[in-house]
Amino acid sequence: MLNHNKTLHVIAVAEDYFDDFVLSKCTIAWQSAARVVGYCLGYCGQYVSDGFFTRRLQHLVTTGKLQAKGNTEKLRDFSIKLPGRRG
To answer: What pLDDT is stored for residue 50 in this prediction?
Structure first.
């Protein structure tokens, strides 16, 4: 469960609440996982940590919704992309 602050009210949401948004920031070309997390942090401001988004990326890789290359244990050590032909 994740607490998400919307219009100064904290609401409880499922852990996968931001997954569609995270996936919308990914492409079929390889890009740094840190870049995607940066986009997400820019959207969410101070409400969600980089560690949370890193764990979501790791989960999306594990479930096959994203592909990764590099060491997925450290944010700056891996790249991600949507499954597809490019890259």
So the answer is: 93
